Every structure is written in C-alpha cells, then in structure tokens.
Amino acid sequence: MGQAEEARELAQGQAAEELLRDALAEEQKRLKEERRSFEREKKAFDFHKEMEEKRLGEEKRLFQLKWKVLEGELQKLAKEKQDMEMEKERYCQRAERRSAYTFSGSTAEAEMFFSGVDNELALKKRYKELIKIYHPDNLSGDTGTLQMINKTYDSLKKQFLAQAVAK
User: Cβ distance 113 to 157 under 8 Å?
Assistant: First the structure.
C-alpha cells in the first residue's frame, strides 16, 4: 500500500467521520427538539392535572354541602312526620272523647261539617260541597247525613242573618 492509498483511506475515514459528526449533530438537534416538545407536553399535562384536581376538589366540596342540606331536610321531614303522627293521635283521642259524649246524629256532629265557617259566603260554599258529596244519588250519599247537614245549614244561615241584621 502506498501513500496515495493511505491518503485516500485517510480522506475516506475523515469524510466518514465528518458524516458521522453531522449525523450525530442532527440527532442531538432532534433529541433537543423532542426534549423541548416533551417538556411542553409535560407542563401542559401538569397544568391540566392541577386544574382537574381543583375541579374535583370543588365538586367534592359542593357535594358535601348538598349532602348537608339533604340531611337537614330529611331531619325536618322526619320531625314533621313525627309532629303529624302526634297531631293525628291527639285528633283521634279528641274524636274518641267527643263520640263518648255525643250520640250519632247529634248537632255537634253535624256542626263538624261546617267547622271553620265564619261567614255566609263560606257557609254556602261548604254547603254546596257537602251536597255534592252526601247526596243520596251519589255512591257515598246518605239520606240521614244529608238531612242533618240541611238542618245545620238552616240554623247556621239563620245565625249569620241575625248577626248581619244586628250590625
């Protein structure tokens, strides 16, 4: 081998080395760009992760507030139910006491149909409602009850007329 061949091999080796350096430099550039891209993606991911954690924390806080409201409302409903049961029991006891002192068909029982009526207009309205319910032509109608309602209506109507004249 001569010097020319060695020079040519040296030149080829230097050219190959130069190509490898260029390829290495290109690969380093590409890796740096991929690293930057990865870091941007990582920052975006971290940002979205943080925002999602905040959103979940806020949802959890709102859920707990709603839960407390629901528990409070449930307790109110339970208390109202208990109060209604007590009121129902008191009403039944009063009804039992009244039935012990009155007999069926009494005026006290008939006046129960018109309880809470305080003027002639309300009296007429209640009377019409009762007639619709207790008329003998209806399924739940009853002649005896209707007669009792009519007597009570007449006496209450007279009382309201007397009050109106007195004024």
Answer: no
